[in-house]
Amino acid sequence: MPYFTTSDGTQIYYTDQGSGRPVIFSHGWPLSSDAWQLELKVVTDAGFRAIAHDRRGHGRSMQTSTGNDIETYARDLGELATALDLQDAVAVGHSTGGGEAVRFAAKYADGRVRKVFTAGAIPPIMVKSEANPEGTPIEAFDQIRASILADRSQFWFELALPFYGFNRPGVTESKGLVYDFWRQSQMAGLTAAYECVKAFSETDLTEDLKMLAVPIFIAHGTEDQIVPIHDAARKAITLVRDGTLKEYEGASHGIWGEYQKELDEDLLRFIRD
Fold this sequence. Notes:
Elements: E1 3-5, E2 11-18, E3 22-26, H1 37-45, E4 49-53, H2 70-83, E5 89-94, H3 96-108, E6 113-119, H4 138-164, H5 175-187, H6 190-202, H7 206-211, E7 216-221, H8 233-236, E8 243-248, H9 257-272
Parallel strand pairs: 3-4, 3-5, 5-6, 6-7, 7-8
Antiparallel strand pairs: 1-2, 2-4
């Protein structure tokens, strides 16, 4: 398996498939690059090069007690892009990975990124405050942290339901998806899983969005229960210079089913343009 060592000595697992224009994927919390398996095939089958990594503390990457924050995640991604000499790349990020991709493109890409594509992404900021009254109260994130410490294995099963919208009337649960969510989540180190809650909820990416000098496609499900669309995509689109917002009616936070088919078609069109 290919690994890359960052400037602070952290070993990052990544997969590198296909050839052509590079598309680099950043996964959501608390998952791994396995969450992008279908997209990796879709993109490579379309004639592009697909790269996806497990961020530090997640998946097969080194479990670290430091650097579990958006700044370091984005720097790690920038170092990987430099090591692979990626040029004219498209950065793709889901959820926390969307925040990572935005900061990477705004601050650490060094001209290597031509476009950004996010889905259910965390920017500009999730937590409620005087400046962000529509946000999610800090108590909700405190409860997530408490659940991780108390019984994270059971918590992943419970979280998978709103993640994919399986708790909604008329939505048929996929046991396979739930178990795969659990499998990937269990691979994340406890420290990384715990500290990433602060990273995805309290990191203010407002200035990163304003700094983006490349086009961005912002995809978001209208029924996202994890990163509510009104406090994320609908705000983010007002902050970027060259952005497209697409709302997927009835879609959840997790990318699956008909939502995934439509999203992947949009992703390919965006890459090809």
